[in-house]
Each structure stands twice: as structure tokens, then as C-alpha cells.
Write a structure and sequence with these properties.
The chain has 170 residues and is an alpha+beta fold. Helix content is 14%, strand content 32%. The N and C termini lie far apart (58 Å). Mean pLDDT is 84; it is low at 1-26.
């Protein structure tokens, strides 16, 4: 019986600590904007859908999009967002496919349209990272190598080739 009481006390402590940690987390601000409205600087699209707020739902494309403010993302933090140019200092570190990121109601599914973008701002010297796409290293980073990375395949179901770069913070 004592072992059960100790186990229950331990479980209650873990649940309490987990609940406190969950409360301590901050979530980025998000909002809905209409399809033809560009996201403000520092915000990224996370989904497309129909909303009566934006008028009559369209027949070909959705009329609204959900956006999230990524500016408060800590160094090394990641955000899932639909394919679009990320804010300064954020780089795609993986691509995949999501129906939520299809603006069209008749998706072609040809390209991976969901990207994980990572905030490289403020990372310490010596940090290594693989970023998707063949590109120059960001300012303050050194290009280590052009690499093949499964997480960076852009064509949905496409083959693996040299599709990313390995970089290291100077």
C-alpha cells in the first residue's frame, strides 16, 4: 500500500509540474485575414479556409487565411508555416505537405507546401544547421557544404538530390 501511495504522490507531482510548465509557455499571436490581404511583416500564413467574415466563400480558392506572428520566436525556435518567404533571420529547415496550406480547393499536391522555419537570429557561435535550398550562408554564418537532406525535398514524393546547405555560425 505504501508503494501505491508513493507512486500516486509522484504521479501527482509530475502532473502538477507539467500543468505549471504548460501555463508558463507562451503562444504566438494569431489571427484571420482575408485571402487578398497580405500578412504584416513578421507574420506567416499557417492555413487557408473559408470564413463568412471575408464574404461569400469562393468556389476555386478559400477566402481567408490564418496567420501567426513569428517575431517573438526565440533563437533556434521553430514555426510551422505555409510556403512563403520567411521573415529576416528565419530559414526553412524542412518541407512537407499539408492540405491546410492549399489555397486552392482543387489541390495539385505536386509541391510540399508546409515549411518548418527556424529562427537563426541570436544562436551562439559554433551552432550548425541544415537549411533547405541551395543558397549562400546567411550573414554571420559559414557555408560548410551543399548536402542532400530528406527533410528538404520540395517536390512532393520527389527524389533526393543536393537540395540544402549545411551552415555553421561564425
Amino acid at each position: 500500500m505504501t508503494k501505491v501511495a508513493v507512486a500516486m504522490t509522484l504521479l501527482a507531482t509530475v502532473i502538477s509540474a507539467t500543468a505549471q510548465a504548460a501555463v508558463a509557455r507562451t503562444t504566438a499571436a494569431s489571427q484571420t485575414i482575408c485571402f487578398n490581404t497580405p500578412p504584416p511583416t513578421g507574420w506567416m500564413i499557417t492555413a487557408y479556409y473559408d470564413s463568412n467574415t471575408c464574404g461569400t466563400p469562393g468556389s476555386v480558392v478559400y477566402n481567408a487565411k490564418s496567420i501567426v506572428d513569428v517575431q517573438g520566436t526565440p533563437a533556434g525556435g521553430r514555426v510551422n508555416a505555409c510556403q512563403m518567404p520567411p521573415p529576416s533571420g528565419f530559414y526553412a529547415t524542412s518541407w512537407s505537405y499539408s492540405f491546410s496550406c492549399e489555397a486552392s480547393k482543387t489541390p495539385n499536391r505536386l509541391f510540399n507546401n508546409l515549411q518548418v522555419v527556424t529562427n537563426l537570429n541570436g544562436l551562439p557561435s559554433g551552432t550548425s544547421m541544415v537549411i533547405c535550398g541551395i543558397q549562400d550562408a546567411p550573414a554571420g554564418w559559414v557555408l560548410v557544404a551543399v548536402v542532400s537532406a530528406y527533410q528538404c525535398i520540395y517536390v512532393n514524393g520527389g527524389g533526393l538530390g543536393q537540395n540544402a546547405v549545411s551552415i555553421r555560425k561564425s
